[in-house]
């Protein structure tokens, strides 16, 4: 009986990817599913894969927690006087194992992993389908999507918690929980999954927008190698990418009308048109599917908001950098198609601090007079400019500084800035990469991990409560320690 229940649960999270037909994605009657009869049609296979995508969307991940916790820890944000308590804990590093956001993130990832595993563990059944029902290429593609998503969820986990329990089955054999695996074991699984995905996924032009592609798998694999300081392997993966380029207009990366552009490698789908009834009450403790993010509310301008860009981040931009206007609003900027003008951005609050700017990325002010918190703009998880700067980093470590500078200059040219001198030293190139990643990817949840892997977090976060040896990781949630008999308080991360 338990197997039937788990299969039904797996499909409670089925969520329509924007460009797919609803007829193709809906199940006629989930209560009639069984392990013996499921995976008999392409629609069933695709629906099961869609269920694994759905867990990227909730508030516990990209719908809310992901952006404010990462940007707050990186101190790309400053909080206003009414900032909600859980947001403050990430800014001042006072979070602990009881925090709901810590648990929602953990649960969201493992729900996604369980749904991906449901597909992967039934790969043999999928591969037995007749060619007339599903071609060999499509079979491998769907399994590749599931493995890409599993890798992504484990990547989110390993970067926040370190070594975590590894689950590979369909969920029916893990009633007591698994012990923590080593970080190396988790990374090995991620690399394995991404290699399979890179071999079997379709190219971007041949795939429905919103689904994982060969280029996405290659780019993520390169990123994983880069984080392990395997620069040569990373560069080899990045060099396989084709069909990507920089958007002419930087801000086109962050508007709803220009989603899935030439620069986009992977993005998480949102669409208010599909309904907002689950927006204010995301089911399953912040881990249920939603159609909109709270980015608009948390990063608002004139309406209620939690955070605004920090002085340090705003000051990092060079004079004339076009990315500034694509990232921030300042007093005097127009919005709502130019019908209105911001006049109240430089106001005093928080004991006299002046707000120098407000976030523009992923905000809806460009087309409406207010931000009500419901944003249907897709979240860009990986862009080609990010890849170019990672390629520059690899070249600077194991290749040539001239090649590294060439990649940096491609990004700077789009920003309207002068090229860097090709004679710069390795150290100077590294400093340029640090700067470019900070401004190019501002508010895109990469800065904190960049600082950690470069070993500069203690210096960059001096004056905050960041503790070396503790705050590089999050604590394992209390609920996991109390419910998993193979994990106890001795397995908790240092300092928690």
What would your notes on this structure say?
This protein is mainly α. The chain has one domain: Serine Threonine Protein Phosphatase 5, Tetratricopeptide repeat, CATH 1.25.40. The chain is 45% helix and 6% strand. The chain has 22 helices and 10 strands. A two-stranded antiparallel sheet has the order 1-3. Strands 2-10 form a two-stranded antiparallel sheet. α10 packs antiparallel against α11 and α17 runs antiparallel to α18. The protein is globular, with a radius of gyration of 22 Å. The chain starts with a helix and ends in a 13-residue tail after the last helix.
Give Rg in angstroms: 22 Å
Helix content: 40-55%
Determine the structural class based on helices, strands and strand pairing.
Answer: mainly alpha
CATH topology: Serine Threonine Protein Phosphatase 5, Tetratricopeptide repeat
Walk across the major sheet and give the strand order: 1-3
Task: Summarize the structure in short.
The chain has 496 residues and is mainly alpha-helical. It is 45% helix and 6% strand. It has helices at residues 2-10, 22-25, 42-54, 59-63, 65-73, 85-91, 100-120, 123-127, 136-161, 183-200, 214-227, 231-238, 283-286, 295-298, 311-316, 322-327, 384-398, 401-414, 426-440, 447-454, 457-460, 478-483, and strands at 77-79, 264-268, 307-309, 328-329, 334-335, 340-341, 348-349, 353-354, 358-359, 379-383.
